[in-house]
Amino acid sequence: MAGDINLNDLLRRYRTHPFEDYVVETPHTGRLQLKVEQGQEVKGPSGKWGQKPGTLLFVLERERNPKKVYSRNTGIISEVRTDLHEAFVEAREPVLTVQHRLNKEEIIDRILKEVLSIYAAPQRARYFLVPEIAAQIEKNIEKGVSIKKGDEILIMSLMKRDTILEYDGEPGVIYKVYFQSGQTVEQGQSLLGVCPPAKLQYVQKVVQRIRTEWDE
Amino acid sequence: MSANGIDMEDVSKLLNALIDRINYLIDIKKDPEWADLDELLERAIALRNVQFELSGTEYRNRLERIEDRVSFLEDRVAEKLTPAEIVNIVRSPQRFTLQDILDNVYDSYTELGGDGERNVDPAIVVARATISRRVKNKIYSHQVMVIGHEKGRGEEFRNGGSAKPWGNAKALQYMKVAENEGIPIHFFIFTPGSFPIEDYPGAAQQIARNIYAMARLRVPMVSFISEGGSGGAEAIGLSDMRLMGSRGYYSVISPEGAAAIEGKIREGERVPKELIEKCAEQLHMTAEDNLKLGTIDKVIDEPRLGARRDDFAFFRRLRYEMIKATDEVVLSTKSFKTFRAYALRRKKAEESESTTFDVVVNWSLTDAETKRLLAQRSRKYRDMGTSFVIEPEESSLPGLKDVKEGLKNCYYEARYGLLKTHRRNFQKVLAEVSGEGSVIIRTVTEPVKAAYDFVFPEPERPQRLHRANGVDTQSIFLEEWEQYVSPLANEDRTVTCPNAEKYGCQDLWVPDLYGESCGVCPTCGHHFPLEYQWYLKNLFDKDSFQEFNEHISSGNPLNFEGFGPRLKRDMQRTGRHSAMITADAKIRGIKVVVAMLYSNFRSGTVGTAEGEKFVRACDRARITRRPLLAYIHTTGGIRIQEGTLGVVQMPKCTLAVREYIDSGGLYIVVYDNNSYAGPVASFLGCSPYQFAIRSSRIGFAGPRVIRETTGEDVPPDYHAARNALSRGHIQGIWDRKDFRKNLYDALLHMGSPSLYYR
After folding, report:
1. Is the pLDDT of residue B340 over 80?
2. Is the distance from CB of B522 to CB of B504 less than 8 angstroms?
3. Taking CB atoms and an 8 Å limit, are B494 and A51 in contact across chains?
4. The domain containing residue B25 runs over which residues?
5. Three-state secondary structure string covering B359-417
6. Which of B61, B223, B367, B651 could form a disulfide with B187 if both were Cys (CB 3.0 to 4.6 A apart)?
7. Is-contact B642 B252, C-beta < 8 A?
8. For chain A, what is the domain count?
9. Which residues, 6+ apart, have CB-to-CB distance to B140 below 8 Å?
10. Cα(B278)–Cα(A147) distance, rounded to whole angstroms?
11. Do residue B170 and residue B233 come from a single domain?
12. Please, where are the H alpha helices in B384-499?
């Protein structure tokens, strides 16, 4: 089955390389001064609002304006172009790579994102599942609830006005409900993850396996 | 009675009292090892454990030995109390709180708007109370409104008496109730400072509103200070008589805060104890110091180590003093004779340390008396700290200045007061008569009007803004730019806009940025700070900016160590004598009075000199009926090195502003860069028209203070002008390039008809 191969590939890919590589480029031309070394651990922004910048990667000076470039991700410097140190560089020149090790949840998230089609909130409002669907989900925990285009799935409640939303994506089974009934959801946030029926069982298996077997 | 012959209950009480006394000494010294206090405490506790094993005499002997030692140590501590120790006394959990005062000083009370934790802000307690006095064996009661901070006895929800903005709003609400009912208000100040949060109504803005209202509250007010923490204290501190406990403190900042600033201690690091002690001394925060500085009126004697919850003699004294102070305020509004008679009797009473009264004074005031009360309050606060203002005498003739002032007042009163009102009435009659529509009547009234206009010419009016006219809508900076370029532009380099990542702003070439762009990022509109001189040159009409009172000079009234040289350095660097610039200026022909705080001089902090200059600017604007513009380039708050002399600038300046606004003036505040603390919480925050230049920050306390006080971090843009606008603290945000135009619009459309050009 095409879906199986796809998922197997995905899993293998993460097994052999459980990292996400972030390549950091120069934003513009200038004289570059590296501040990190190969293999060094770097940190991404921290603080409640991400207000504290991450590790300083390099300084790029142009027109006597030294611009500091900070790491946006946590990880290890896997590659660094030491030949660029103290040299003039062009814009969009890759300088170094931050290798971020993925954890279980991040991998599951990534796999689900690739396999599932996500139904996102059209606007900030409180959301409820349509009663029939809610009842079905409760009944068929194992099998899941199939939906197709045009089905009424959600009630969007805003300022005492209820609007019924119809599903408009690919037909499939509701794999995951991302919100609690009656919860306020911001615009663009995920509401439902819908899985093609053929892949459903397999996805469940893969996720289960990652949860239990993956060692970090 | 126990077997060993002594009353165990009594002994237990004695022993517990002793343990309390030892703990109190530890509180004061903040050092259990001082004179082996910890060992003494252990001995006392051990004695409690063996009380049934010892014989009566042995037990009593041991008890007496401990008591002797405690008394001896108390004597030693009381002999020389340092200011830091007084702060410890005030903060001790054994010190009396407002609850004790309500229970012991007043006969009965009803708490309003609160019951323990069920309260909009449990740190502020409001109560309708009855206080009574005995005169010739008869009891007379008075109704008062009691408003104060409740530190709580270990009750966490009281927040240590640190009032939230809505707590101060509650205080204001009940002040107005008291005003309505015509009963005096007794304030009790027990606060380490206001809770520094910006949520509506805003820490700074609510304090400003309170001070603004208290400036003209039509009832007698008496305040008592135990712990007077800066702005928090002022929120309920402006009163006709300010009393202070002899072991209280009243200060511009906590000694720890001052030490952190003075010692440049980084966040999270421990402030050395010696530095805190030194700062406590330098801040002149004790009752004695404050009496000398004239920031309070009277010191109420407490027991030598401070009054505690069970010092009933002190509460009796406090009751007497509160009544007497209210009497004095009320009588001072009455004819001179009555007051003198009372004063004589009072003197006698004081000699005998009596707590009884010879007379009953009715605390309600007539309209005339209220007027006198307000006038006195105004004088009282205007005079505060003036003796510390350094002002070289300008004229050789001492009386000449007063004569000049008097003449000026008469001129403006005649021109824009009497004549204008007269003229307006005349015009109204004329308009009504001609408005009948009869051509015949108009032919009669026209010559009369022409003759009248000839005799009383209309003052020169500024030209209106014509939007249709191409000349007017051109850049207002066009001409000026050829003359003034910010020195910041003289650098060949680029800078990065702080929003570059968010909006993708290009790097900005400095000569362009500070030249043509007026320091504004062309992509995102971020405003880079500019020096204050830029505004002097670009905001006002050419050559119209004429400073006055520039000779008034900031000083070091408390001889704060190390501050003199710093002040001198700033004076040399800026070529000015204070952080406040006051001037006459014109904006498109409209004459305005300008008060400016700028960053280069002690970060725009306000002290006695700055306050005095501001008050005089208010008076000048009031007399000449010109609009008053407070342009705040930057202010870092009250100058801590001036201690409470700085703090009293808050009520003083607010009072002057209030009088100016009440006289029909137009007071516009424009914030730029950073505006924080005291000034925002008083004479700036009370303005009905407050605007901010884009990208500026406005707030009560900076992020570090908020973190240290509330234990919670704040977002990086917490104080941003746009957030101040969303919270309702300001009325609008102006772009720097539109400043002059917007200001001119404001001058034309805001304010009352009593402005000179209306």
Report:
1. no
2. no
3. no
4. 8-80
5. CCCCCCCCHHHHHHHHHHHHHHHHHCCHHHCECCCCCCCCCHHHHHHHHHHHHHHHHHH
6. B223
7. yes
8. 2
9. B132, B133, B134, B360
10. 75
11. yes
12. 400-412, 419-434, 439-455, 470-473, 478-481
Substitution target from A49, A61, A69 for chain B, most B beta carbons within 10 A = A49
Q: What is the CATH number of the domain that holds B732?
A: 3.90.226.10
What number of H helices and E strands is found in chain A? 4, 16
- Chain B residues touching A65 at Cβ < 8 A: 493-496, 507
Res B352: pLDDT: 54
**Tens digits of residue pLDDT in B714-725:** 999 999 999 999
Asked if residues B260 and B279 have their Cβ atoms less than 8 Å apart, the reply is no
Q: Say which CATH number the domain at A37 has.
A: 2.40.50.100
Dihedrals phi, psi of B725, to nearest 5 degrees: -70, -45
Token digits of residue A127: 């959301």
CA dihedral B605, B608, B612, B614 (to 10 degrees): 10
B133: β partners: B140
- Cβ distance of A63 and B496 shorter than 8 Å: no
Whether residues B197 and B337 share a domain: the answer is yes
Determine the 3-state secondary structure of B631 from DSSP. Answer: strand
Mean pLDDT of all residues in B570-595: 96
Q: What is the ipTM of this complex?
A: 0.78
pLDDT by residue (tens digit) across B598-623?
A: 999 999 999 999 999 999 999 999 99
Distance CA B495, CA B523 (A): 14
- Dig out the tokens for B324 from the structure: 């007497």
Amino acid (one-letter) located at B115: D
Interface residue A64 vs chain B (CB under 8 A) = yes
Residues A89 and A139 in one domain: no
How deeply is B464 buried, as exposed, middle or buried, from its count of CB atoms within 10 A (0-12, 13-18, 19+)? exposed
**A165 vs A155: CA distance, rounded Å:** 6
What are the structure tokens assigned to B342, written together? 């009372």
- In chain A, the percentage of residues whose pLDDT exceeds 70 is 96
A64:B492 CB<8 A: yes
Q: Summarize pLDDT for B121-138 with one digit per residue, the tens.
A: 999 999 999 999 998 889
Provide φ and ψ at B174, rounded to 5°: -80, -20
Instruction: Label residue A2 by pLDDT band (50, 70, 90).
Output: very low
Is A62 touching B (CB cutoff 8 A)? yes
Give the mutation candidate from A63, A69, A70 for the B interface (greatest B CB count, under 10 A): A63
C-alpha to C-alpha distance for B493 and B516, rounded to whole angstroms = 15
Q: Give pLDDT, residue B466.
A: 47
Let me know: does B665 contact B717? Beta carbons within 8 Å.
Answer: no
**Domain of residue A41, residue span:** 19-101
Q: Taking phi first (over 0 means left), then psi (-120 to 50 degrees means alpha), and beta for anything else, what does residue B751 get?
A: left
What are phi and psi for residue B519, nearest 5 degrees? 75, 25
C-alpha distances (whole Å) from A142 to each of A139, A173, A174, A201, A204 are: 9, 11, 11, 10, 10
B202-246, pLDDT tens digit by residue?
Answer: 999 999 999 999 999 999 999 999 999 988 999 999 999 999 999
φ, ψ of residue B355 in degrees (nearest 5): -120, 20
Is A10 among the domain residues? no
Interval B458-510: pLDDT, tens? 655 555 544 444 444 445 554 544 568 899 999 999 999 999 989 999 999 99
d(Cα A42, Cα A54) in Å, to the nearest integer? 7
Residue B708's pLDDT band, with cuts at 50, 70 and 90, is confident
Boundary of a domain, candidates A101, A129, A149: A101
* Count, residues in chain A: 216
* Partner B contacted by A67 (CB < 8 A): yes
d(CA A170, CA A147): 9
